[in-house]
What we know:
This protein has 212 residues and is an all-beta fold. It has strands at residues 67-69, 73-78, 88-94, 106-112, 122-134, 138-147, 153-158, 171-178, 187-195, 202-211.
Amino acid sequence: IESGKFDLIILFFEVNTDTVETYYIDDLALYACTVDCGGGPIDPPGEPGDNLAINGDFETGDTSGWDLSENNGLFETSDAEAACGTFSGHLVADIDAGTGGPSFPFVKQANIGVGTVTPNSQVTISFDLLGSVAGDGGVFIAEFFSETGTGGTSKSEILGGGQIFPTNNWTRYSYTVTTGNDVSAGVTLLLKSECGPVPGCAVDAYIDNVFI
């Protein structure tokens, strides 16, 4: 089934007219994608509706739900690439296109899951990534924070332990982490393309299907 072409579920029942049959149906859901997306069919963690990320598939066609710091870089929605559906998030760090200083744009889903996420519990984060790194000093990083009510963090973690190298094929990245002992202000996922002030450095990343 081609993604984005259907928005209706129709159920057909064929019954014998000589009998009475009863059917119970629960938890019907339509997901944004049913095609092979970034290394396998979409399989969101948990139950339908459990995703804490807002507009994680960018299918609103805008950046709603995401907090942005451009920092001499670029973030936009794009229909040039998508793991499935029509849009993805496009996060670019580019020294030659900027001011010559560091370029480190990042976006985040900030302080989500307040009252839902609990301390010292497991959270699964996944996203699809496509792109390239050119020159020296370019990195793509995903970070996860447990936010406290006092404006600090009880735990921070670089997902995968270090930088991620986007390739020209959509790739699904998935991580299971444990929250800190205080998540009274929710949790935050931060995605960053970063270049130090090295001429020729560029990180061109497309992000899709973010699930938390």
